[in-house]
């Protein structure tokens, strides 16, 4: 696995960035933070569209050091923007052929057309495409350049919810099957929860956190841009089978979760979102409840949120979850780091479905 090593500073009138980080390049790394945090500028530095002061290395290659600077066209990095930026004078087939021809990838066009379901669109001009269709073309065109790294700058932000739901499965497929690492800028917890394997958080031009999605997600706060969103724990589980009464059994490091209806074939790996507000806590294992999912847990942190609430970090067999409860409940249950308790999950959402706005 290659690493992207960034030790770069950049100062402008509107922004100051100081990044010193090693990014392992695999899966999809979400770059998360509020507007103005420096997310897009970081992508531009990586792509070579901007030049800061310092060093940058991609594996064994030096992209920036002293006077040396590798220009964008020699980095083999593909960038997908909010707006697709297709060539208006070419139809879809022409846009794909242009990218493939420059990279010597004409033999890959047919497979890319199939991957992104573009066959009905090939003769159409960009102005006739919906936002979701245009982004599918942009994704296919980016891959046809044979990139070693794909940068995505909020590629679904400009789309309505229906078009987002159309494009996100293609990004998931790219993450899981294309074997090309992705750096994905977002300020949406819903997208990050659904897509990320790693998360890098930024605030005011500095890295504030970096690690596996399951570790970082429970501690994320909603950004000022999207205050209705909230942190959610991420559970990676395996489908174990169906019970006699129609419940799907999902095994993970902290135990078994039951979900109504089949969520995948036996043995399939699925990602589950557990919102903090959907977790209740009890010191003793409760009885006489309708809730099916009651998991042993250990309190890892108690962080006040405002005057009346607290964010409770939990460890469920090595999987990080979170609960949002009142300070009165914290006191009544005597919750402190290290305390044993039970997490009662009121609802479970499959991560392949976008989280709705509250």
Automatic annotation (TrEMBL):
Domain annotation ABC transporter: ranges: 1-229
Domain of life assignment: Bacteria
GO function term, MF aspect, one: ATP binding
Keywords noted in UniProt: ATP-binding, Cell inner membrane, Cell membrane, Membrane, Molybdenum, Nucleotide-binding, Translocase, Transport
Domain Mop: 288-354
Protein name, UniProt field: Molybdenum ABC transporter ATP-binding protein
Organism: Albidovulum litorale
